[in-house]
Amino acid sequence: MSDLLLHYHEGQLEAGCDEAGRGCLAGPVVAAAVILPDDFENELLNDSKKLTESKRKALRPIIEEQALAHAVAFVHPEEIDKINILNASFLAMHRAVDALQKSPEFLLIDGNRFNPHPKYPHACIIKGDGKYLSIAAASILAKTYRDDYMEEIAEEFPMYDWASNKGYPTKKHRLGIQNHGDCKYHRQSFTLLPPEQLELF
């Protein structure tokens, strides 16, 4: 049995929400919302950061098949640059919730801040992806869909090593920016090459 909880409020239709890609220099921020059935059990399901890539990939179809509803939403760099990454994360979660096939009664949000949804009450849960099954499920969908997208665009711009770093600020990624400049998938509102990083090269 998993140590994660299925419910915050018993008897309510709850959607767990999480995002991936907030700290990246390139690519979208991606959010997912998942409503799980009352009898859902999976001992492997945990915070996506604690799972191997192969376990995340194996869990995704199980979550999608067994969830009562699930949705994934993207907010791309142009929007991130206009509204900032925190608001973009909230917007991605709102979009995922709005795309659910069933209307939830309550939202479980991973983290300590959220822009309230106009229709549904919520609770913010710090490290919620390690506490609630629905948030853990959302973290896996958000992470795997974002990884797939970054691997696709890596073929277009191989010099940034996105297939490995998924847009996070690794040394190889920053070397790629230093040697080739940035590209249309980079977040211009982020510091792509901070001065202290340049000293590493």
Word description of this protein:
By secondary structure, the chain is of the alpha/beta class. It has a single domain (14-155), classed as Nucleotidyltransferase, domain 5. The protein is 38% helix and 15% strand. It is built from seven helices and five strands. It has helices spanning 53-66, 77-83, 85-98, 133-156, 162-165, 171-180, 195-198; strands at 14-20, 29-35, 69-75, 106-110, 122-125. The protein has a five-stranded mixed β-sheet, sandwiched between helices. Helix 1 (53-66) packs across helix 4 and helix 2 packs across helix 3 (85-98). It is globular.
Q: Return Rg in Å.
A: 17 Å
Number of helices: 7
Order of helices and strands: EEHEHHEEHHHH
Total beta strands = 5
Query: What fraction of the residues are assigned to beta strands by DSSP?
Result: 5-15%
Q: What is the average of the pLDDT values?
A: 94
Judged by helices, strands and strand pairing, the structural class is: alpha/beta
- What is the share of helical residues? 25-40%
